Each structure stands twice: as C-alpha cells, then as structure tokens.
Amino acid sequence: MQNASVPSHVDNYIELIGNKCEYVEKYWKVEVIEFEEESSGEINYAVRIISTLKGQSITFPKEIIGDSDFEKMLLKRLGRIGVIKSYHLKIIENSVNNSLYEETNKIIKAKDISNFLIKDVLTGTPTIFYYKKIINHLQKNPELYPTRSSNKYDENVSYGAILDNLKKHPIGKYGHYPVAIRSGALLKLFNINNCNKYSEVVNSLVQQGFIQGKLTLKDFDNMIPDMEYDSFGSISFENNCIKKKKRKSHAKGISMKTKGDQIDSYIVNIDLSYGDQNVL
C-alpha cells in the first residue's frame, strides 16, 4: 500500500479539467489520497496540492474543499509556495470530484494519514470540519448513539446517547434532539493529539453554537500544557505540566439512561444538513 508521505510521482497526478486548466497545470499538480482512519475505520479522502515552482505541498481533507473560510486560508498558504488565483481552486475542486468517478486508477491508497494531515495543514482547518465529522459519524453509526429512553447505552461500546426524554433538552430548531457525546469519544473522533488544539476546537464549536455551553474570556487564556484523557473523559496531567489554573471544560454530567451514573459529555446540537447523508 502506497504511503501518502512518499515523494509524488507523475502517474498519480489527476487530470485538471475546465476552462483555463492549462494555466493551473503550469503551477500546480494535484493528487487524491484514499485512506482509512484508524480511530473510526472510515474511508476518507485527502487532497494534496503540489507546487511546480518549489516542490512543496499542502495536504488537507477532501470534504472541506469548497468551504469558503477554508479556501481563504488555503489561498494564503498556497501563495507562500507558488502562484495561485482564486479560480485555480475551483478548477482543482471540480477535477478532484471528477477523479473520484473517472480516474480511480490515479487515486493513491494509503494507511491512516491523519497525523500527516494535522502536521501539514489541519491546524488551519475551520471548525465546520469537526462538526461535519460528528454529524457524519452519527449518521453512519446510529447504533453507537441509542436514545436515552431506550436504556440501550453501553459504556463499553456507545459513543453517546440521543437526549430524547429530558425536558431541559428539547427538540432543536433543526428538528432533532441534541446528542450527548462522551468526552473521551469526542476526542477520539476528532483524532487531535494536542490537548491545547482540542480545547481550541471545542471552544470554537461552543462559540458557533454547535456544542452547548457558555464562553468567557478566560476560555481563550493560555492553556495548561498537554493532558491525557481516558475513554470516559477523565483527565490526567503529564509530569511536566504545572497545574497553575484549572482547565475549564464545557463537558457536563449527563446520564445516558433514564437511571444511571452521570458521565462527562458534550451536548451537541444536531443539524443534519452538514452531513453527507442528510438523514438520521
């Protein structure tokens, strides 16, 4: 299986299509990478854009191509390694989508490259990417999110529960009950190894209303160095961490069954229009 971090080869470049594509080809080559996420077992795609001028590249998850906020950031980054125009990205987006149907022989097969993506560009990924991961995981794995009233939550298997019988968590404005996701399960789903980055993403999700909670200015203060979370959201500090201030968490104690212990969880507001399937 070819690894995505190996040098690019001309046989893997997809064909760029559309008006003025020859101008894009002058400055950029594009590869599509198929990989399986080790944490979830899901098959995903990544896009690698390679500068013909400097040979440097930027790799990012395919599912966020076309996002306006991400493209603003991407234009700046590509501008550091080559000549880029906004219309180049539209040609690249259309060509990537075409390659998934017409050029399957050009797609690179790779092992889990999540760390490669994080190292290359993921620190600039917009928050919406992580919310889409939640929605897609919920849609593709409904058995991992039983309703609270069913009492089918299994602490060894389930990621969370649909809060369908709690008065303080009514049906949201998009027609669905919110979902409680275990702290540790959310960390696993996001596949972020840096705790400061994880907190930054969660704060941003709260700020945009995707996760329930309230922010204060203290949420954006300097964070404590890396911490480890177990699968149930408990926190342990590394030896080199100095516990000068308590890290605020937006996780709340939620009972996943009608009767039972409370588990530290994040309450996620559900809008299925962000998912690939748009059904639950």
TrEMBL record:
Taxonomic superkingdom: Bacteria
Protein name: Uncharacterized protein
Organism: Alkalihalophilus marmarensis DSM 21297
